[in-house]
Amino acid sequence: MNLTPSYMKLRDTGELWRRAEQMPPMLKKCALCPRACAVDRTVGELGECKAGAGIMVSSAFPHLGEEPPLVGMGGSGTIFLTHCNLRCVFCQNFDISHMGRGEEVTTEEVARMTLQLQAMGVANINFVTPTHYAPQIVEAVALAAERGLQLPIVWNCGGYESLPVIRALEGIVDIYMPDIKFFDKASAEKYMAAPNYPQVVRKALLEMHRQVGPLELDRRGIARKGVLIRHLVMPGHKEDTEAILKFIAEKLSPDSYVNIMEQYHPAWRSHEFDKINRRITHAEWEEACETARKLGLSRGF
Ligand code: SF4
User: Fold this and answer.
1) For ligand 1, what atom is nearest to the CA of residue 35?
2) 7-294 adopts what CATH topology?
3) CA-to-CA distance for 19 and 25, rounded, in angstroms?
4) CA of residue 163 to ligand 1 center, whole Å
5) Residues whose CB is less than 8 angstroms from the CB of residue 186 and which lie 6 or more positions away in sequence, other chains included
6) How far apart are CA 10 and CA 17, in angstroms?
7) pLDDT digits (tens, 9 = 90+) for 223-268
8) CA-CA-CA-CA torsion for 233, 235, 237, 240, nearest 10 degrees?
9) Per-residue DSSP letters for 79-121?
10) Given a cut of 80, is residue 15 above it in pLDDT?
11) 85 alpha carbon – ligand 1 mean position (Å)
């Protein structure tokens, strides 16, 4: 297996900087995500995500609680970004995503953070909620790659991604980690203010899978490349879980790595919605795993 992150090839040909220079104009009539707010973020206009022209970081640290293939011995080099393009009423990090906790930093500083994390021995650089900062992240990666960054880049997102942006990330992102939430339009509208989420996430997943395929691990069991899918099982939404797992097994690959997550708990505005105002039961989670097994999935849960 090739252990070199893909962006190092783009660095050597000059393509990485070309991409970094092509992307900032996207901020002028923002369509970085499917909301396509068309605001000019470079002059202070804000779209639904509330992200500006710069990049805001909430925290950066070696995260030991991510999936085992991301953690290795030194943790996943997590950089939590402020704001979010999804409006989940149940967000478990609402202080960061909805309330804007974080500090504005330069792309130089983000590049420095990646190098500091690398020096601490992390297994990858894990950008959490990166979608609305794609141009700034690509610039930071280009800067860091020139200064010796050699770790895979993880795109840890909600799956509400614009196809042109995901295509522009080809060869830069090694590991896509979308968290797929709903395949039902009404639920996506009610709980995330994104009625087109189901169709968008299907297309995004297909493109991610086309670029990097199922998750590949090195000899030590550490992820080097591929798609790592998360699915947060929601209370009372068994049909969504079944439809999502079926899509993964049939349209991507039964070899897909899927973390079927049990840790949902009511947060932020969940108390306003009876159906999701509770934890899931262990039986609900077991049932989701059994559905996955019946569909031929076997990795990640
Ligand atoms: S990234 Fe933000 S401003 Fe841009 S289209 Fe999406 S929600 Fe709107």
Assistant:
1) 5
2) TIM Barrel (3.20.20)
3) 11
4) 14
5) 195
6) 8
7) 999 999 999 999 999 999 999 999 999 999 999 999 999 999 999 9
8) -10
9) EEES--SS--TT-TTHHHHTT--SEEE-HHHHHHHHHHHHHTT
10) yes
11) 6
Q: Whose CA is nearest to atom 1 of ligand 1?
A: 132
At residue 2 the predicted structure's pLDDT band, cuts being 50, 70 and 90, is: low
Q: For position 3, what pLDDT does the model report? A: 72
Distance 168 CA to ligand 1 centre (A): 17
Q: From ligand 1's centre to the CA of 229, what distance in Å? A: 23
Domain ranges of the chain: 7-294
Ligand 1 pocket: which of 30, 40, 56, 157 to mutate (most atoms within 8 A of CB): 30
Residue-wise pLDDT tens digits, 284-299: 999 999 999 999 999 9
Nearest CA to ligand 1 atom 2: 49
The number of helix segments (H) and strand segments (E) in the chain equals 11, 9
User: Across the strands, what pairs with 76?
Assistant: 63
Task: State which H helix or E strand residue 142 sits in.
Answer: helix 134-146
Tokens for 100, please give them.
Answer: 């804007």
Tell me the per-residue pLDDT of 208-232, one tens digit each, with 9 for 90 and over: 999 999 999 999 999 999 999 999 9
Among 32, 86, 157, residue to substitute to test ligand 1 (most atoms within 8 Å of Cβ) = 32
What are the pLDDT digits (tens) for 200-210? 999 999 999 99
What is the bridge-based pairing of β-strands 55-63 and 103-105?
Answer: antiparallel
**Which residues surround ligand 1 with Cβ inside 6 Å?**
30-33, 35-37, 39, 47-49, 51, 85, 132
Ligand 1 atom with the shortest distance to the CA of 31: 5
